[in-house]
Design brief:
Layout (H helix, E strand, L loop, with lengths): L4 H14 L19 E7 L5 H13 L6 E7 L4 H14 L3 E4 L8 H9 L4 E5 L12 E4 L2 H15 L5 E7 L5 H16 L3 E8 L4 H14 L5 E4 L2 H13 L9 E6 L2 H8 L5 E4 L5 H12 L7 E3 L4 E2 L6 H5 L4
Parallel strand pairs: 1-2, 1-3, 3-4, 4-5, 5-11, 6-7, 6-8, 8-9, 9-10
Antiparallel strand pairs: 10-12
The structure holds beta-D-fucofuranose.
Length: 327
């Protein structure tokens, strides 16, 4: 493992600040052991959804002190400016690696050029960035969001044969890969079917509260829809609340398609309230850890790793899947 000289002093200073001068805390290694830990700065999108919280936990578990890491976690509260500041702080602290889960695709070139100048490898997780210079990051691991959207469209085609569809669309955070891919899948589906009509489209920013608010708006503006395409489970939970309050039966009066397939959403499939859910796997911690281990050994990890994902409706969902899920 490489020598971590430049980080040691900073790590100690930071640990000292965090611990308010205390030298030992349960769960944290003694300060003298910190010198060998690999220091990783992780700029996380926020805490907008169950998916995101599972993703944060997976990173904390995989990059723990017991595993030889010191993870500095920064929650950007879904704001790109906060992520840019966090990355600059990581650079100033001289971390060994930067992990970025980007809020949106564009706008990273300047700060990632700064990271490159400082010689810090950047690993992108979950969503993608758009850049003319792919050398600005070392590698990426995440999901194929367009293919997730295509799966939902295919399911709709297979299960609603020939029916006139009036589709209401709750989008995720605008400009994020998860929104862009899932929206472009739906747009392609609408373009390919004369009997599919988009009647409503608003962003619910991937949160339950905004999903509910936008569904209330939908109900007041355009109540004659029969499909709800919601780009994540938390917005779907909000939508279900709004529909039920209006006396509409989710999953029956309105066909509901959702994304993430967290265990709570899978239970709603068994209850008949969600019709189809496309899995998006948040457990990137071990994947990032493996990439860092490869880099530490001087190996070259794959530039792009797409995670394999499945999808569920009531025909293929087993109780055992929900129990073994972990998120
Ligand atoms: O679907 C949503 C989260 O980028 C895959 O972000 C992620 C998305 C996920 O807030 O729940």
């Amino acid at each position: 493992m490489k020598k971590r000289g430049k980080n040691t002093l900073l790590s100690l200073l930071l640990a000292g600040l965090l611990l308010g001068g205390c030298s030992s805390q349960p769960g944290l290694p003694a300060e003298e052991d910190n010198a060998d830990l690999v220091v990783v700065g992780f700029s996380q999108v926020g805490a907008e959804s169950d998916w995101r919280n599972a993703n944060t936990q997976s990173m904390l578990d995989a990059l723990s002190a017991e595993n030889g890491y010191r993870l500095i976690l920064d929650d950007a509260q879904q704001k790109q400016e906060k992520q840019i500041t966090a990355i600059r702080n990581f650079i100033n602290q001289g971390v060994d690696y930067i992990v970025l889960a980007p809020t949106r695709e564009t706008g990273w070139d300047t700060v990632l050029t700064e990271a490159r100048k400082a010689g810090i490898p950047v690993i992108i997780v979950d969503r993608m960035i758009e850049t003319g210079d792919p050398d600005l990051f070392t590698c990426w691991v995440g999901s194929d969001f367009r293919s997730e959207g295509d799966k939902a469209v295919q399911w709709l085609e297979d299960h609603q044969e020939g029916k006139e569809l009036r589709i209401a669309h709750l989008q995720g955070s605008i400009g994020s890969s998860a929104q862009i891919g899932r929206t472009s899948g739906l747009d392609a589906g609408i373009g390919a079917h004369d009997n599919w009509k988009l009647v409503f489209r608003e962003s619910g920013d991937f949160t339950q509260a905004k999903g509910q608010e936008m569904t209330e708006k939908l109900l007041s503006q355009e109540p004659s829809f029969n499909v709800l395409y919601s780009e994540n489970d938390n917005m779907t939970y909000g939508a279900i609340e709004a529909l039920e309050s209006a006396g509409i039966e989710p999953g029956k009066d309105v066909t509901i398609l959702s994304f993430d397939a967290s265990s709570k959403a899978l239970r709603l499939i068994l209850d008949g309230k969600i019709n189809y859910d496309v899995e998006c796997n948040p457990l990137h911690g071990p994947r990032v850890r493996k990439i860092i281990e490869q880099l530490e050994k001087g190996e070259t990890p794959l530039k792009y790793t797409y995670v394999e994902e499945v999808s569920f409706d009531s025909s293929n969902l087993l109780e055992s899947v929900i129990e073994g899920r972990g998120y």
